[in-house]
Amino acid sequence: MKNKFDFQPKLVSALKNYSKEKFMTDLMAGIIVGIVALPLAIAFGIASGVSPEKGLITAILGGFFVSLLGGCNVQIGGPTGAFIVIVYGIIQNFGIEGLAIATVVAGIILVIMGALKLGTVIKFIPYPIVVGFTSGIALTIFTTQMKDLFGLTMDKVPADFISKWIAYFEHFDTMNLWSLLIGLTSIVIIAITPKFSKKIPGSLIAIILMTVVVYVMRYHLGITGIETIGDRFTINASLPGPETINFKINFNMETINLLLPSAFTIAMLGAIESLLSATVADGVTGDKHNSNTELIAQGAANIIVPIFGGIPVTGAIARTMTNINNGGRTPVAGIIHAIVLLLILLFLGPLTKHIPMACLAGVLIIVSYNMSEWRTFRSLMKNPKSDVSVLLVTFFLTVIFDLTIAIEVGLLIAIILVALQYPIRKLAFTFIQTTEEVERLATLYFRICIWGAPAMLGLYGFAGWFIGMQNSRFPMYIAITQNIVNIAASLCFVYLFHMKVAGVAWGTLTAQYAGFLMALLLWRRYYGGLKKHVAWHEVLKKEAMLRFFQVNRDIFLRPLCLVIVTLFFTSAGAAQGEIVLAVNTLLMQLFTLFSYIMDGFAYSGEALVGKYVGANNQPALYRTVRQLFIWGVGLSTGFTLLYFFGGKSFLGLLTNEISVIREAENYFYWVLAIPLTGFAAFLWDGIFIGATATRQMFYSMLVASSSFFLVYYSLHEWMGNHALWLAFIVYLSLRGIMQAALSRKILYQS
């Protein structure tokens, strides 16, 4: 009968037909892997924010239990570079006790996953997500090592990626040339060692040589300033028992809920890396691992190891391959590797205090390079656009934020966008009837641009923040940057790479993420410090949330009406043929240009009105409204004159199709009416949002939208496309008229 929980440790079956010959090969492999694991365990421990012996304890206990209980014959467990970032972040925020809780919970999650036979489900995680956060981790690890590589004197290193580099440049004058020389020499030794020896790891050679060199320099030549492990840590060369660990954990549901996202991240990382390592091993040995048993073993190791002060455990690809290459074929080799590390800790542990930190930085830089998978990353950039987008989003989230966000958002984006692509596209072409060629090109454009949705949603959030802080300059800077990037990238993709419509779409996508990244950098630089002042307990109160959603409900419904009108405008034009569709799209660019300018004044009005309403300063409020409309009348008149005298020439810049330009001239006078009839709608929108009078704004939009359809359906058989433009002018006018009628009550109440 098949085991219900599918728990079948490979050690049990391996020992059934075990022999002296197998033991000797496992013994040699285990010794070599133990030696290889030594510098890595120390380096990973220090980089994770714990003492070096904690890294060794993790490799000893984790390696032992993974081999004892695991579902892979040759898997070597221990600390890995993938956990450095998440572990360091947890320790900074929750301390070592918080890390212990998160790791234990992660272990429980892994055991449950294995018991529920979810080992095979891991393979369905999109590969671009795996590569994206692996490459992001590699870059983050590289960044964390700059302080020790250059020997910088810094009291505290910032946690986030951008702030780290800013701090490094600010303290670059404290660089220690001896540390830099030690670090670079270590990198060279590790890089060239495989050319001379496949058995002895370059990292071990580098550590031994550089430790001897630094010892002589410090104690015989009088050269100081090269920091060693002993300068930063006190080495405890013993295997601790659970009773000796300060394990005062408040292990309750509140603490668990707080650490659950981090625990989930540890579990997912552990599952992915261990099963990926086992899969690679299968390809070399011809064996077949049991993924569910492996997950249970990884879970058990992560439950036990924190009790002894260790950090998260997973399968290590590099050490597993070292085990295979040196003859290891059963879990006995992994157990021997753990014993070797234990003996080194007990008898040679005190010597580790002489290892220079710059040398360990060199070891981790090589680790980050090998981990980066830059060749795979580059090849994935040639994959379908959906894969590329998920890859880049996950990568940048990992680097700029953290793994928890990256994994969760990466998965969410992949699921949502893939799920919604078809219905959105289908719905669009249900309303817009056009030729097969136009639909094909539009589909191509859509499939690329849809992956810009996360960036645009984030950008809307940042824009709201900036405007709320009365900073309209940043949205303007971002908009200008986006347009420049869009033009430059589109030209590059179209003319250099001959991508045509796809090139334009990629230009748009590039501009969207460029804008989001710029907004993020500006926010972190100028407003990041305000995070500590946010009173989340006040924000999350029922009354505050109800008010928030009430305001946002009306703000949501208003643009929904706008989208419906715009969609129908496009659909009705498309129904009249490709020429009319092209004409309407072309003329709408003139409206869009005008709307950009008026949106800027609307944003200013939004911020100022909100300020004066909050301060109950009615004289300033009235003065602001009056000044907005003075500017509005002046600008709308200017745009009308500009379009009258130069608008037709502007059309020639947008298209070289003579037939389209000639047909556009028949409708051009409608464009002249847009600025004067539409400016009030933009200004009142900003005023009403600033006063949080969103319900009245929605009512105005509802009346105007209804009038649009009433006018069009009344006149379209007689006037054709002219009815569509007349309906649009009426729609713009009524938005402003209705809001003006409601404004007295709004402003008076304010």
Give a description of the structure:
- This protein is mostly helical and 750 residues long.
- The chain folds into three domains: 334 residues, no CATH class; 74 residues, no CATH class; 208 residues, no CATH class.
- Helix content is 77%, strand content 1%.
- It is built from 30 helices and two strands.
- The protein has a two-stranded antiparallel sheet with strand order 1-2.
- α4 crosses α12, α5 runs antiparallel to α15 and α8 packs antiparallel against α9.
- The radius of gyration is 32 Å and the shape is elongated.
- The chain starts with 9 loop residues before the first helix and ends with a helix.
- 42% of the residues are buried.
- About 2% of the residues have low confidence.
Question: How widely separated are the two ends?
Answer: 76 Å
Specify the biggest β-sheet.
Answer: 2 strands, antiparallel
- The assembly state of the depicted protein chains is single chain
Structural class: mainly alpha
Quick gist of this model?
This protein is mainly alpha-helical. It has 30 helices and 2 strands.
